[in-house]
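EI: anyone free to look at a 146-residue chain?
SC: sure, send it
EI:
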Amino acid sequence: MFVGEIVKNKGVGVIAVSPDLTMVEILRLFRENNIGFVVVSGSPGMYLGTLSERDCCNAVAEYGAEAAAMRASDIMNRGVPTCSTEDLLPVAMAIMTERRTRHVLVKDGDSVIGVVSIGDVVKHRLEEAQRTEQDLHDYICGTRYH
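SC: here you go
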C-alpha cells in the first residue's frame, strides 16, 4: 500500500501550531484533539519542526518545571522526517524505525499533506492480516471461490 492511500483514508491535513505557543498550551491541544503530535509552522506551508508528546517529556526531564512555559520553538524537533505519497508503507516504517519516531510527515511534491503515525501503520497491518486470514478461511472452506 502507498503512504498516500493511508493519508487519504484517514483524512488529509495536519494540525499546525505557532512557534510561540507554550508547551502547556500544546499539551491542552493534544488532549482536546486526542493527538500526540503537531507541526510547528511559522506560516501556512512553512514547517519549522514538529512537536510530540515525547518531545514534551524530554523537555520536562531536561528543564524541569520551567518546561511548561517554554515555547514550541525552544523544544521542537527540527529534523522533520518525511516521506512521499508515492512511497510504499515499508518505507515509512523504515523511517520510523531508523529515526526512532512515531510520526512521519507525508509530502505530495513540496506540500505536506498529512501525517502517518505508528498507530496508522499498526491499523493497516492489522486490517491486512484480517483480510488474509479471511481469504485463507474462505479458500479452505471453498466459499467465495468459483
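EI: The mean pLDDT is 91.
SC: 👍
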